[in-house]
Amino acid sequence: MLKDKTVVLGVTGSIAAYKIANLASMLVKKHCDVHVIMTKNATNFINPITFETLTGNKCLVETFDRNFQFHVAHVSLAKKADVMLIAPASANVIGKLAHGIADDMLTTTALACKCKIIVSPAMNTNMYNNIIVQDNIKKLENYGFEIIKPDKGFLACRDEGDGKMPSEQVLFSYIEKEIACEKDLKGKKILVTAGATQESIDPVRYITNHSTGKMGYEIARAAMLRGAEVILVSGQTNIPEVPFVKTIKIKSAQDMFEAVRDNFEQCDIVIKSAAVADYRPATVSDDKIKKKDGDMIINLERTTDILKYIGEHRNNNQYICGFSMETRDMIENSRAKLHKKNIDMIVANNLKESGAGFGVDTNKVTLITKDEEISLELMSKQDVAFTLIDKIIERMN
Predict the structure, then answer these.
(1) Which of 208, 222, 289, 302 is deepest in the core (most CB within 10 A)?
(2) What is the pLDDT, as a whole number, of residue 352?
(3) 189-396 matches 6-179 in CATH topology
(4) Burial group, residue 395, by CB count within 10 angstroms (0-12, 13-18, 19+)
(5) CA distance 253 to 267
């Protein structure tokens, strides 16, 4: 998704500058064309040769470098950039940009850029919280710059507080969000469910299933990258949260039902990919567990059918997609669910297919609507997520 994208990294004088070497490496591994511009003070913390070695491009420091290949370097690089990230961003450079001062290569390039500029402040906590610096940050936001809020933590100056630059992965996620995809879902709100629910039997044991949440999380991530506002209702998973996605953590099927019920009406698209436990211990008696001849007997009752509820309470402008896990008669059983639950699409996968289903990074599915069946080849769950969203957009337009 980032192949052939041009990323300009601006590095200012801060001890956090060392992190940008790893960020540059991460971007290059994703096949980005990475260019680094440093202030003179930044060269006291990390050598330009480091960036030149990692990116294969000349690291720019001097505005009037006669050995640079572009004509009027700050203008040509600004035109080429798909995104510019200034990190770490010192109070000095933030103040310059907020007032239109361009007296070095970094600031002249930034002011010549028409692409999105992302700024990650990093400095002493007292400096960061200074009213002047905060006012300058607000000015940048008003001018359309995106500001990454610094972390709290132990700083190089031995102070504890705001001002720590976030990790390289966080910086990478801001760049990825900006340039990875066309924003064909901008203005749309999407609700996705993912992961397994758990129904407690007693303080130790519970009923659940093998869902890992990978498919749902990939759908949420794909929708976010394409510009949607995403709500992810997540059961139990071991997956890191998707950045820029509102995640509602739940435990039981009833928890998931309530979270979906309270949020789905405001959404344009609802995709239920979670594997909800079909049964829970019955609540008709306090004595849920009985013993007979050494065997455990548990009274069970069905959990709420979330997808059926959505289908019954949907509005005419919503697109509803569900998932079906089948071990036999996959198409017939899935199509029956499509009609019974009054939804627009169902994603069917056969748990007997190699490489499909729970606990793997690939999937092999069939997209079923009222009018057609689209059988996809075995592919990564990331690719399935993007293909699914493509098909939903096609049918909404």
Answers:
(1) 222
(2) 75
(3) yes
(4) middle
(5) 20
Give every residue of the chain whose pLDDT is below 50, as ranges: 71, 284
Task: Kindly report each contact of residues 124-131 with a partner whose C-beta sits within 8 Å and lies 24 or more positions away, as own/partner.
Answer: 124/155, 124/157, 124/159, 124/163, 125/155, 125/159, 125/160, 125/161, 125/162, 125/163, 126/159, 126/161, 127/91, 127/163, 128/91, 128/161, 128/162, 128/163, 129/161, 129/162, 130/91
Q: Can you tell me the distance from the alpha carbon of 258 to that of 275, in angstroms, rounded to the nearest whole number?
A: 16
Q: Is 115 a catalytic residue?
A: no
Annotated active-site residue in 32, 113, 157, 181: 157
pLDDT value at residue 74: 53
Whether the CB-CB separation of 345 and 392 falls below 8 Å is answered with yes
The model's pLDDT over 148-158, given as tens digits with 9 standing for 90+, comes to: 999 887 666 66
Domain ranges of the chain: 6-179, 189-396
CATH number of the structural domain 189-396: 3.40.50.10300
CA distance 218 to 385: 6
Domain 6-179 has CATH 3.40.50.1950: yes
Is 95 buried (19+), middle (13-18) or exposed (0-12) by CB count in 10 A?
Answer: middle
pTM of the predicted model as reported, rounded to 2 decimal places = 0.90
CA–CA distance from 362 to each of 326, 353, 380 (Å)?
Answer: 17, 11, 4
